[in-house]
């Protein structure tokens, strides 16, 4: 019985950590998008 609960607990921790990792990756992707847009604007900006 105990081994079954440990396995279920391990799976739930894995899901939580993968969700946290997904959120982190999504945040980094958003930051890279913003930085890329800024660089393009600076390069293409003519006064």
TrEMBL record:
Predominant location: membrane
Example of a GO biological process term: negative regulation of cell population proliferation
Family stated for the protein in its record: Belongs to the DVL/RTFL small polypeptides family.
One Gene Ontology cellular component annotation held by this UniProt entry: plasma membrane
Lineage of source species: Eukaryota, Viridiplantae, Streptophyta, Embryophyta, Tracheophyta
Superkingdom: Eukaryota
Keywords assigned: Cell membrane, Developmental protein, Membrane, Transmembrane, Transmembrane helix
Membrane topology: Single-pass membrane protein
Name used for this protein in its record: ROTUNDIFOLIA like 8
């Amino acid at each position: 019985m105990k081994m079954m609960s440990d396995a279920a607990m391990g799976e739930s921790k894995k899901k939580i950590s993968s969700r946290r990792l997904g959120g982190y990756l999504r945040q980094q992707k958003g930051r890279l998008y913003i930085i890329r847009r800024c660089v393009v604007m600076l390069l293409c900006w003519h006064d």
